Amino acid sequence: SMLLQNDENLTQEQKEYVEKIIFNTQRLSTLTGSVLLLSKLENQSIISNKTQFDLDEQIRKSLLSLEAEWEKKNIEFDIEMDDTEFLGNESLLHHIWDNLISNAIKFSDDGGEIKITLKNYDDKIVFNISDKGPGISDEAKKHIYDKFYQADSSHKQAGNGLGLALVKKIIDLEGGEISIHNNDDKGCTFTGILN
After folding, report:
1. pTM of the model
2. Per-residue pLDDT of the chain (195 residues; tens, 9 = 90+)
3. Measuring CA to CA, how many Å separate 137 from each of 9, 101, 186, 187?
4. How far apart are CA 94 and CA 68, in angstroms?
5. Which of 166, 192, 195 is nearest to 87 (CA)?
C-alpha cells in the first residue's frame, strides 16, 4: 500500500482507496498492539523492568509526539509540572500520557485549552489532565475503563476503546489510582495518583 501511495500512474480515485487502506491498516495494527498489551498486563500482578526516570520529561515528550494533533485544532496548553523522579516501567507509563492527552485533544473544541499538572508530594505523585470538551455522563463514567467501551459514538473512528482500559490497568499495577470528574465550567479532568 505504501509503495502504491507514491505511484504517479494512479488515478485520484485509486489514490483515495490506497489512503483508506493505509489508514485502516494502521488502525488495525494499533488495535492488535493494544489487545496484546492489555492481555499481557491482565496476566501480570507486578510490573517488571522498573527504572528511575523523569516523569515530567516523559510527559513533555508525549506532548511533542502528539504535536500534529493539537496544532491541527489550535489547542493551547496550561502546564504546571514539578521536577519528578519516578521508579516504574518507563515504556508502560508512556501509554498513560499518550492515551490521556490524546483523548483530551480529541474531545477539545478547536482553539480549546488543556491543563496538565504534575505535583510531587512526599509519599505520592498527583497528576491532572483537564480539557474543555463536552464532559462525560454519569452512565459513561461507570464504563469508562471497560475494554472496547466508547462513550461518544461520534469519535469511534478515532479510537478503539482500549486506551483507558490500558491506562487503568497500568496505574493499578503501579499501585496507583485514577478517577474522572466533570469540571464546574466545561470539560472533564482525569486525576491520577502514583506511589
Report:
1. 0.75
2. 777 777 888 888 888 888 888 777 776 666 666 566 666 666 666 667 788 999 999 999 999 999 999 999 999 999 999 999 999 888 889 889 999 999 999 999 999 999 999 999 888 999 999 999 888 888 888 878 776 656 655 444 455 567 788 889 888 888 899 999 998 888 999 999 998
3. 50, 20, 13, 11
4. 18
5. 195
